Amino acid sequence: MNKRKILIPIDGSERSMHSLEFVKEIFPKGSVDIIIMNVKELVLINEMIVADEIKLAQELGKDILEAAKEKMKDYKTETYFAFGYPADEIIKKAKEENIGIIVMTKSTKKGLTRMIGSVTVNVVKRAKCIVMIVPNDFTISIR
């Protein structure tokens, strides 16, 4: 039987790291394969992308993913970095990898769409798999 694949998009914030803790709490070691993903949205200035900005973004993304992978060291984990619109890249990766569950964290911003985040709303609307949304204040229960 194939293990279920979980995609965890993170942005490096403490809030987004809650998704990792949630997955560890819910899914036993060895029961799932995990892809941790970081997407950097590129901003064009006069239709130019500054090469230094790209290099810096890639390095930051790599650092974020390595820190996340370390938190998930007991699990079979891959990391993936992309440039683009986060929701588009998350949906694309989920299709490519035949993902069973996407685990995301709620946004801390105010307003209806901001309640769970515009990227999350977009992913929920378009995903062909389960999307689990972790609350900001998720804490691990001690068993």
Automatic annotation (TrEMBL):
It holds the Pfam family Usp. Coiled coil: none annotated. Residues 4-135 form the UspA domain. InterPro entries: Rossmann-like_a/b/a_fold, Universal_stress_UspA, UspA. Gene3D superfamilies: HUPs. PANTHER family: STRESS RESPONSE PROTEIN NHAX, UNIVERSAL STRESS PROTEIN UP12. Belongs to the universal stress protein A family. This is Universal stress protein family protein.
